[in-house]
Amino acid sequence: MSDSDPAFLITGASSGIGAATARHAADAGYRLVLAARSVDRLGKLADELGGDQRALAVPCDVTQWDQQTAMVQTALEHFGRLDVVFANAGFGAPRGFLNSDPEHWRSMVLTNVYGAALTIRATFEALKETRGHLLLTGSVAGRRALPGSLYSATKWAVTAMGEAARQDLNGTGVRVTLIEPGMVDTPFFDNPVSNALEPDDVARAVMYAIAQPAHVDVNEILIRPTAQEG
Ligand SMILES: NC(=O)c1ccc[n+]([C@@H]2O[C@H](COP(=O)([O-])OP(=O)(O)OC[C@H]3O[C@@H](n4cnc5c(N)ncnc54)[C@H](OP(=O)(O)O)[C@@H]3O)[C@@H](O)[C@H]2O)c1
């Protein structure tokens, strides 16, 4: 472990896929920037992963541009570099265009789509500096339409954003990977789900993508639990 270890920023790090990825990345020697809105949960995870020198908790609502720029500034002041960025924050909504409520929809669209775009924008130059790696959490729901699902539409936008970012970053050395999970047993769901992936399963997919040699860009990983329907 040293002060020159690469730095890995995760949004949505307080829970589920983001928290599991933080643990795997820490094991692999990365220093972590852990971002989300839940300060308590971020603080506990940062302590577990070694405290400020190894894992920094940074409160950030990804829908707020000033909070995203402050997050990146704090990360660069603290670690001096950003090597991997995982734009992972997001949540769902009940299916059906007459279900959920418009304010929940607004918040979901702003988080899943606008928030991810802001993370790309805020970290773009820092990733170019390190010839780093950008990852986005899409979904199997971003590869196929689900009945009455605006959530699915937000993830179609993330699928497009990953490819748009990849082409925008061509020539910079920055790699771009879309992580597209099927059902994962996380607090994304109100109740535990069965026949689902564990957050660790998705974290291993992230680590696989970033462990490849610099000339290999794993653009998409679609990962479902075995025999998921749809
Ligand atoms: N679970 C699945 O089956 C599944 C499948 C495919 C894709 N995904 C995607 O995987 C990603 C992670 O979800 P998960 O399953 O790990 O669920 P989760 O455990 O509920 O984690 C969601 C994370 O997003 C953060 N978040 C939500 N709104 C935010 C905001 N405005 N600003 C900053 N952080 C915010 C949450 O933290 P705070 O509440 O502390 O802010 C939390 O850390 C999401 O993009 C989700 O759409 C999930």
Can you describe this structure?
A seven-stranded parallel sheet has the order 3-2-1-4-5-6-7, sandwiched between helices. It is α/β, with parallel strands linked by helices and 230 residues long. It has six helices and seven strands. Helix 4 (102-130) links the parallel strand 4 (84-87) and strand 5 (133-137).
Secondary structure topology:
Layout: E1 7-11, H1 16-27, E2 31-36, H2 39-48, E3 55-59, H3 65-79, E4 84-87, H4 102-130, E5 133-137, H5 150-169, E6 175-181, H6 199-210, E7 220-223
Parallel strand pairs: 1-2, 1-4, 2-3, 4-5, 5-6, 6-7
Helix pairs in contact: 1-6, 3-4, 4-5
Question: Can you give keywords for this protein?
Answer:
230 residues, alpha/beta, 7-stranded parallel beta sheet, 7 strands, binds NADP nicotinamide-adenine-dinucleotide phosphate
At a glance:
The protein contains six helices and seven strands; from the N terminus they run βαβαβαβαβαβαβ.
Number of strands: 7
Classification by helices and strands: alpha/beta
Approximate shape: globular
Mean pLDDT: 97
The kinds of small molecule bound in this structure are: NADP nicotinamide-adenine-dinucleotide phosphate
Question: What are the secondary-structure elements, in order, as H or E?
Answer: EHEHEHEHEHEHE
What is the radius of gyration?
A: 16 Å
First and last CA, distance:
43 Å
Query: What percent strand?
Result: 15-25%
Largest sheet: 7 strands, parallel
Low-confidence stretches: none
- Biggest sheet strand order reads 3-2-1-4-5-6-7
What's the tally of helices? 6
Q: Into which percent range does the helicity of residues fall?
A: 40-55%
